[in-house]
Design a protein that fits this description.
6 strands
């Protein structure tokens, strides 16, 4: 298996969340359902400056790049 940042997934690529590297926003992300062990699918990964759109836990969520860059996934 390969580990990378969530921001590095291509559109429609799936992964499993393994960790959140920034303790300052980890509670916010956990409350949004971004939990280690959950399957995540990248929906839209546009260039920096645009929010990322992911599918996780039956819902679509938009994240800022700096938030998504703290999430480590395995694919």
């Amino acid at each position: 298996m390969v580990f990378c940042k969530l921001t590095e997934l291509d559109e429609s690529q799936c992964g499993i969340i393994r960790s959140i590297e920034n303790e300052g926003i980890s509670l916010k992300l956990l409350e949004m359902g971004i939990i280690p062990g959950e399957k995540v699918t990248m929906d839209i990964n546009k260039k920096k400056g645009s929010p990322l759109k992911i599918y996780i836990g039956g819902a679509f969520i938009s994240l800022r790049w700096d938030e998504a860059d703290c999430i480590v996934v395995e694919y």
